[in-house]
Amino acid sequence: MQRLSTSDADFAERFAAIVDDRRESDAGVSDKVAQILADVRQRGDAAVRELTETYDRHRLDWRIPASECEAAFAALAPEARDALTLAADRIRSYHAAQLPEDRDYRDEAGVRLGARWSAVDAAGLYVPGGNAAYPSSLLMNAIPAKVAGVERLVVATPTPDGVVNPLVLAAAHLCGVDEVWRIGGAQAVAALAYGTETIARVDVITGPGNAWVAEAKRQLYGVVGIDMVAGPSEILVIADGQSNPAWIAADLLSQAEHDPSSQSILITDDAAFANTVEAEVEALLGQLATGERARLSWQDYGVVIVASDLLAEAPALANRLAAEHVEISTDDPEPIFAALRHAGSVFLGRHTPEAIGDYVAGPNHVLPTGRRARFASGLSVLDFMKRTSFISLTEAALGAIGPAAVTLADIEGLPAHGTSVKVRL
Amino acid sequence: MQRLSTSDADFAERFAAIVDDRRESDAGVSDKVAQILADVRQRGDAAVRELTETYDRHRLDWRIPASECEAAFAALAPEARDALTLAADRIRSYHAAQLPEDRDYRDEAGVRLGARWSAVDAAGLYVPGGNAAYPSSLLMNAIPAKVAGVERLVVATPTPDGVVNPLVLAAAHLCGVDEVWRIGGAQAVAALAYGTETIARVDVITGPGNAWVAEAKRQLYGVVGIDMVAGPSEILVIADGQSNPAWIAADLLSQAEHDPSSQSILITDDAAFANTVEAEVEALLGQLATGERARLSWQDYGVVIVASDLLAEAPALANRLAAEHVEISTDDPEPIFAALRHAGSVFLGRHTPEAIGDYVAGPNHVLPTGRRARFASGLSVLDFMKRTSFISLTEAALGAIGPAAVTLADIEGLPAHGTSVKVRL
């Protein structure tokens, strides 16, 4: 953990280093992933079968039947079933309100113009196996796709040694996933993108994964649609000295416990409060089952910044960081929120811990990381839809705007363009 | 040109081959582009200077002053100035109506939820030099960025041997572009993405370019936002036998004249009409200054399909092709349009040639190619904006939905997540 003060002589330099620090690596898998993609594209099922035997050590049928997912849901403890259902309902409701409106109008020149949105035909969701298999992540990917109107929703998830994660199957049932396949890694992403004899190809692939999965998606960008390249999780907490230090410590560690390369940053205007939070972090680290992972993250990437004035300084720093999650723990978070330009999701006020957004608030928890909130947004129904624009001219409307098109075709040296308008005038 | 009939015994097979045919190649520049990106990232201006001397053969100052753009606009023929201005006004008006609305509401559980859209800080537009420098393309990229609210809009355009294209400068002036730099190729894209001593980095890069530029953008996806990977242009014309064959021939060639790897496809239900269109294409090819390019495209990639029933067959074929441009030349295009699911932009009725959309209709002419309309949309203001979701809970609202979050954190094995909620309950 490093501690800075905005009044330090070297603050600008140290802060810039934090902003520029990349906690991502492609782990050198780029060439190997390219080979797997080419292999699956060419040999289909045979390639996927061999890679699954090698990496996941099983020769089971890939398809997990819907009945197994239904049974997994029925077998959940009632409390878990209710919590997942509440989360699904709230996520569905938030995303339904995101559905874009079509446009169809006639302008002053008599030209009919518009745009029509439609869902992609098929979407594939990658769900990691083992430790990182989170049912909440399946909900956050599957529900926007279903709300968008995707007819065929496919999950690919590895089952190392054939062992399934019943929570993932239960969540797939709850979300109405149409197909679940027990395959993983770059080979699963390739099978979804190119299709094989057994698995029909999809149009969009989303969902988290390890370095192989992330690199496979990156390489397939353009062959299919993908969600944003995702890096380690981040939280920036902007807290005044009246905040409860134990609450803030838990918030910081709720990101740190994801991964040793996660990042938690506190900006406060109260140096004594910063000290107390640091002590609370230490205390909580000792109690957490995830303490080892969280300690590495806090040690290597944790940052505490003491500012002289929160409202004057925190928004500018936050905009440079463009963090995935920003918490504002003050009595009136609005002035700081109004000055924030770049953030994935913002958590306003003392009773809004970030974790509430991971599970049950409703907005998506798939958010831009690694300073990408400068230009990227969280996952939404739009990631599973596309827009078709349309134009309709009467003879009179063509007469009004056609001559200008002929002039422009002419200066651009495209005579067939010009001719196609001229012959109709 | 190949001709098919939906009643041919081998139609399904031949049509599938057309759908799968990829007219794109990275021209083997992937490794060289990676080297250029790394070089510019490390050495900044020095690398850009050397590459510009090598490829563009000039050592001029990179910055083209605003006064030069203004002068280029003033020097336009009045007809060209009026046509560009009409186009800009119509494009601006269509895109202004695309601006997304923010959301801010409180739901039944008392939870305040919302989403706030904002523009990226800076956008870079690549504008090709030489033959492929189209002022209309600058308009189609710059205007959505300005409408979105981008404060700093930067153009990079190569000037081989130092020669500028005055039409590009004039269009830059008309659109209010803030900086114009005479650099090109992968080195220009790298300079925009990483920044150099002279050029500040941007957040989003859009615009067409050669294989080097396209590959540079692909490799920088995630470092910055980019528009969709673009391939050769395409048009699908669905026309009944009452259409004017000379009009349809001009429409087909208006895409063919872009590039030898462009693709023009006609679907009609009238074999005699198809013959006449083919003859008109031949006649027009002989007259066009771009005839050589257009002939190669028509020869290698042109397709004429005779269907037995347009309404019954054309939409399904069109959805497989997912073409960039789809023209429907019938008296009542609505039934076919209603059945179209995948298309970049649709041109309805006999008086709506595709070229009208390239210039003055208003919708964007940057559209998904290579079957990508299955999952991608044309350029819009959204490509220059991002959405920040937000959540605000009162103590009571946290009491209502917090326990479910604790349950889910528990089953996912993330105790700090659970703690951050529990301590507040």
From TrEMBL, chains A, B:
Residues that, per the record, bind NAD(+): 126, 187, 210
One GO MF term: histidinol dehydrogenase activity
GO biological process assignments: L-histidine biosynthetic process
Highest taxon of source: Bacteria
Needed co-factor(s): Zn(2+)
Enzyme Commission number(s): 1.1.1.23
A Pfam family that the UniProt record links to this protein: Histidinol_dh
GO cellular component terms, A-Z: cytosol
HAMAP family: HisD
Function: Catalyzes the sequential NAD-dependent oxidations of L-histidinol to L-histidinaldehyde and then to L-histidine.
Protein name as it appears in the record: Histidinol dehydrogenase
Gene: hisD
